Amino acid sequence: MVEVVKQIGQTDLHVAPLGIGTWQWGDTQFWGYGKGYDVDDVITAFWSSINAGITFFDTAEVYGSGRSERFLGKLACSTETKVVVATKFAPLPWRLSAQDIHRAIDASLQRLGVQQIDLYQIHWPFTLMNIPTLMNALADAAAAGKIHAIGVSNFNAAQLKQAHEVLNRCGVTLASNQVQYSLLARAPEVNGVRDTCRELGITLIAYSPLAMGLLTGKYKMNVMPSGARRYTPRFQTKHLEVVEPVLNLLRDIGSGHGNKTPAQVALNWLIQQDVLPIPGAKNARQAQQNAGALGWTLTEAEIQTLDETTAPWQRPSSVSR
Ligand SMILES: NC(=O)c1ccc[n+]([C@@H]2O[C@H](COP(=O)([O-])OP(=O)(O)OC[C@H]3O[C@@H](n4cnc5c(N)ncnc54)[C@H](OP(=O)(O)O)[C@@H]3O)[C@@H](O)[C@H]2O)c1
User: Fold this and answer.
1) Where does the pLDDT of residue 316 fall: very low under 50, low under 70, confident under 90, or very high at 90 and above?
2) Which residue's alpha carbon is at the smallest distance from atom 34 of ligand 1?
3) Which of 14, 164, 185, 297 keeps 20 to 30 A from 227, CA to CA?
4) Does any domain span residue 117?
């Protein structure tokens, strides 16, 4: 049985073993904010999560061009509950120095309306800035009190080790690495990322834990998501066909646990891997349903069957994107 409260890395941040992603909150381009869901849905998604005991919210400066951070900042300060906010620095090609990181932190602080960011992450490792430059800038920001904990995202095992070492020399720990991880994207188990996180005491935060909605079981050949998502490899016919047995297994297993949905089973499997999943939710119904992944446990035998059935998705391949 996995702990009820999860510590993020070696920090003093403790959260439920499930968070929520907020890329959807204000993003029109990929998620279609404004078409089918709007600000009222975002507000009720927030409150449903808080009421379910979920306090870890993941955003980024690029989500909805800052709108997600602004929504989250306003909502987080409207509750007495201590909300843990994680946001991210986008190392865009024209951002070349530590000064760019400090400016981005100040802008995020302003949009979030806080004095300090709980967890500040580097969104991806592809940048002309090297890892020491990135990490030293974050250590300086932590020393200045602008960020509480430091995380990275999409870092491979070697990059993680280097980031951890640089921070260690500054007397700071690396708290988390956020990577794509789900039953249909299991590369972190075989590419060294999960092992390195465990070895160094870094929390693995699992993004796209529902394979962008596919693991809810609602999409099929003739029921496709709107927008850019439908053109990604995971929503192509060939992939939908091979995913069908996985969805049937999730339905089967869920029915043995009081009619848990495929999404709840998929999230419970991740929680049992001792990682922190952050499913995105567009509205209260999705947030409530995802919170139903908490408070029960898959059996060892069910976990083993899920492991075996989804073994082909351990291979890093285009279907995970
Ligand atoms: N660090 C990175 O590079 C990175 C990359 C991607 C994501 N992220 C973070 O991870 C979070 C989650 O990943 P994600 O948003 O890509 O994918 P996800 O969590 O796998 O899927 C989210 C989508 O699935 C659908 N959904 C969620 N719960 C549902 C439910 N209970 N019933 C039915 N449909 C449901 C919704 O879309 P529809 O209703 O439209 O189907 C929702 O927008 C993001 O919000 C973001 O914070 C980080």
Assistant:
1) confident
2) 213
3) 185
4) yes
CATH of the domain at 33: 3.20.20.100
What is the extent of the structural domain holding 190? 6-320
Ligand 1 atom having least distance to the Cα of 124: 3
Measure 320 CA to ligand 1 centroid, in angstroms.
13
Question: Is 1 part of any domain?
Answer: no
> In which residue are the tokens 């260690």 written?
168
Q: Which of 63, 120, 207, 219 is catalytic?
A: 63
In a domain, 269, yes or no: yes
pLDDT tens sequence across 17-60: 999 999 999 999 999 999 999 999 999 999 999 999 999 999 99
Residues in the ligand 1 pocket, defined by CB under 6 Å: 21-24, 31, 58, 123, 153-154, 178, 207-213, 216, 218, 225, 263, 278-282, 286, 289-290
Give the Å distance between the CA of 228 and the centre of ligand 1.
14
Residue 172 domain-assigned? yes
Please confirm, yes or no, whether 33 is among the known catalytic residues: no
Angle (CA) 56 57 62, round 5°: 150
Per-residue pLDDT band at 172 (split at 50, 70, 90): very high
Within 13 Å of residue 289, how many CA atoms lie on the same side as its CB? 20
Which ligand 1 atom is nearest residue 213's CA? 24
Mean pLDDT score, 204-208? 98
Q: What is the DSSP letter of 230?
A: G
Please state the domain count of the chain. 1
For every residue of 252-300, DSSP letters joined together read HHHHTTSS--HHHHHHHHHHHTT-EE--B-SSHHHHHHHHTTSS----H
Q: Quick one: which atom of ligand 1 is closest to the CA of 263?
A: 31
